[in-house]
Amino acid sequence: MYRLLFICVLFLFNLQDASVKSWQANYKLTWNDFKGKPETNTGAVAITASGITFGFSITETDSHKVVDFTTEVHAHFYPEKSWYLPNKATKHVLGHEQLHFDITELFARKFRQRISKIKTANSVKRELKTLHNTINRELAAFQNKYDTETDFSRNFEAQLQWKMYIEAELSALEEFAINE
């Protein structure tokens, strides 16, 4: 007889918010997706709140031997936590914010790729949690690097280079995309 143990780890924000958007290749953010109250004291023109949600289930025997596991990884955008200043936001800034969401999807794919290499073993729960923490640290560092190198979208040339780079990386990891 097998027991099914389900564990769900949610990153960043509560998913009870029905307006949460999953990343889709054929959907680009619009300013209407940004529903949060703008923060005027930050110096930012817009903020994209996005993150990776992660859940897994483990099947184990009565003797607690892990015999299988499944995972779910999603890149999400959080409209109620995302905002913009209407009098300063441009199409170019929106493209910068879209790329933040695309970067989140890129790291969701990297996460799925790394999960695909994990072998079923009693240590799988610990391995998945460690991998989740690692990918989130890498994602945060990458998002910061993106903002720094593009000067928060003000460096148009760097912005274009990043856009092409992220598109190529997403394409290279297409097999780890979710087909919805």
From TrEMBL:
Residues 1-18 form the signal peptide. Keywords: Signal. Pfam families: DUF922. InterPro entries: DUF922. It comes from the Bacteria. This is DUF922 domain-containing protein. It comes from Neotamlana sedimentorum.
